[in-house]
Amino acid sequence: MYEGILPLWKEKGMTSHDCVFRLRKILRMKRIGHTGTLDPDVEGVLPICLGRATKAAEYVTDAGKTYEAVVKVGRATETEDASGETVESDLSDKQIPAGRVREVLSSLTGDIVQVPPMYSAVKVNGRKLYEYARQGIEVERPSRTVKIHSLELLSKEPSFDGEEPEFAIRVECGKGTYIRTLAVRIGEELGYPAHMASLIRTTSGSFTAGDCLTLGDVERMHGAGRLGETVLPLERALEGFPFIEMDGSLAARVMNGQVLPAHSLLDGNERIVFAAGGKAVAVYRKHPEKTGLMKPEKMFGVPEAKEDHQ
C-alpha cells in the first residue's frame, strides 16, 4: 500500500476524477484522492493523496496555486474559455499597449470579488452550476472574495494588435480563484470581451511541475517496483504548519484525540502538527467554543508498515 503525496501532471482531455479512477486501477488501491478540480482542457500540477495522506488533501487544496494562462481579447464565450460558444464579440482592429495591460493586472492584484462561472462545480441549492448551465437555466450565483497574490505579464511584445490579440500572464492566487473569470475581467478592464485561451497550473502549494509524473510514468514505475521512490511523505502537505515532536505523556493524549490546553504556538498559527519521530500524528487547532483549549482537526494515526510493490 502506497502512502503519501504523488504529484501528478494532469494531461489535457481528462478530468481530475478520471485521473483518480486510472490510478486506482494502476495501483490497485481505493484510498486515493485529488486535491482540487482541474477542467479537462487544463493541464498541470495535481497532487494526489494516497492512503493516510487523503486526510490531508484539504490542506493542499487550500494552499496557493500558480498558473500560466493566455488571455484572448475580442470574444467572450459561455464557458469563459476556448471550449465554449461565442456569446459576445468585437472583431475591430485593436492596439493594446503592454503598459496598459500591466496597469490592469496591477489593479486586479490583491483581494478581488468574483462570481463563479455558470460552467463550474460550485453548488447552488444542492446542484452544481454546470448542471443548471447544461439545461439552459441561469441562476443567481453567490459572489466571493479571492486573493490574487501577483499578476505578471509574460508576453514581451510592446503592443498586442489585431482583431483577436492575445497575451500570456502568470497568476499566483489563493483558494477558489477562477482564472477564466479573471481573464474575462481583464478583458472588461481593457474595454473588450475576452476569454481564457489556455491554462497550465505550474504549482500547487509546495508541489511544482518538476515534482510531477504523468500517468504513463506512474504505470511504468509501479510496474518496475520503483514508484515508492517518488511518492512524497504526507508531511509535505503540512509544511505550512509548525511541527511539535511529542514526548511520551503528551503522545498518549494526542493519539487518543484528547482536548488539551492550547499550545502557545496557536497564538500565531491557525494549526499545529504533533509528530512522533518526524511523522505527523495529528493536526490541532484552537477549540472553537472553549477558550484556552485546543482540539484535534485531523488524526493520522500510526503509519502502516511498508510493503514491497513488485
Short overview:
Helix content is 20%, strand content 35%.
Q: Could you characterize the architecture of this molecule?
A:
The chain is 20% helix and 35% strand. It is α+β, with helices and mostly antiparallel strands. It has three domains: 92 residues, Pseudouridine synthase, CATH 3.30.2350; 140 residues, Pseudouridine synthase, CATH 3.30.2350.10; 59 residues, PUA domain (Archaeosine Trna-guanine Transglycosylase, Chain: A, domain 4). Strands 1, 2, 3, 4, 8, 11, 13, 14 and 15 form a nine-stranded mixed β-sheet that branches. β5 and β6 form a beta hairpin. α1 runs parallel beside α6. The longest helix is centred in the N-terminal third of the chain and has 12 residues.
Average pLDDT reading: 92
> Strand content of the residues, in percent?
25-35%
**Residues in helices, as a percent range:** 10-25%
Order of helices and strands: EHEEHEEEEHEEEHEEEHEEHEHEEEE
Global structural class = alpha+beta
Measured on Cα atoms, how large is the radius of gyration?
22 Å
Query: Could you describe the largest sheet, including whether it forms a barrel?
Result: 9 strands, mixed
CATH topology type of the largest domain? Pseudouridine synthase
- The second-level CATH architecture of the largest domain is 2-Layer Sandwich
Extended strand count: 20
Q: What is the oligomer described by this structure?
A: single chain
Per DSSP, the total helix count is 7
CATH class of the largest domain: Alpha Beta
Shape: globular
Low-confidence regions: 305-310
Termini gap: 11 Å
Write down the domain tally: 3
Catalytic activity: uridine(55) in tRNA = pseudouridine(55) in tRNA
Enzyme class: isomerase
EC number: 5.4.99.25
Protein name: tRNA pseudouridine synthase B
